[in-house]
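One-letter codes give the sequence; the fold follows as tokens. An example follows:
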Amino acid sequence: MKPRAAERRRLLGDAKVSMVRIIRLLSALAGSMALVGCAEVPTAEVPIVCTRELRVHFVPGDTTIMVGATFTASVELSSCGRQEVLSDVFTWESGDGTVAQVDAKTGVVTAMSVGETAILVTGQRYGNVGGFTVGVEPAVQ
């Protein structure tokens, strides 16, 4: 059975009261933390836990250029919240060479014709690390 309107209002009122109490508790706790933070209390170093996740950052990310334009793409690999920089030897590949070509070793991308394609990167050590999209528009006359 669905609660009647009065019962729904009472339940909503109880929820609002509970939220107000939680907010007051958090505010009081934050105030206590601020007071402790002002005192000269020695603190221990907290070790950073590295999860060894692989982070991949492309420069540029998804982009649009005009026919005939070029740019050099790069990829940065890191781990431990970007605290550990990783290296690899990359091979670049275009999903559609009629739209954009990429030099397999240098990552230089050249726009060939109007359209959109993926630029994909594979590392010798880390394998397929992903890619980004290149949109190609007509050159301005």
